[in-house]
Design brief:
Layout (H helix, E strand, L loop, with lengths): L1 H8 L3 H9 L6 H11 L3 H8 L16 H8 L6 H23 L2
């Protein structure tokens, strides 16, 4: 894993090893690459590394947004059209459920 991460980020295996063992921290540019690679907000990466004050953990929603979930879970199986169709179905169900609740 560290070797693959190093290759993907364009740094040496030794550099990643130093990051993981706490002997060094990524540069700001490496933090940008890490954020893009991991899809974690740059502010969060910079905070974890120590360039910014710790970011307060926001309460994570019980369910992630479908588009984000689908892209991570099924990057090759679902294209944008399918994701949009599924989102539309989810929204219709939410509206229907909301509309049924208004009559009570």
């Amino acid at each position: 894993m560290p070797s693959q991460l190093a290759a993907d980020l364009g740094v040496s295996h030794a550099t990643v090893h130093r990051w993981l063992t706490g002997k060094d921290v990524p540069s700001i540019r490496s933090c940008q690459r890490l954020a893009e690679y991991s899809r974690v907000p740059l502010q969060k990466v910079l905070s974890v590394v120590g360039y910014l004050p710790k970011v307060a953990e926001a309460e994570t929603p019980e369910w992630p947004e479908f588009r984000d979930y689908a892209r991570r879970k099924y990057p090759d199986e679902l294209d944008e059209d399918l994701i949009s169709m599924i989102e539309d179905l989810i929204e219709r169900r939410r509206r229907r459920k909301y509309d049924w609740g208004k009559d009570s």
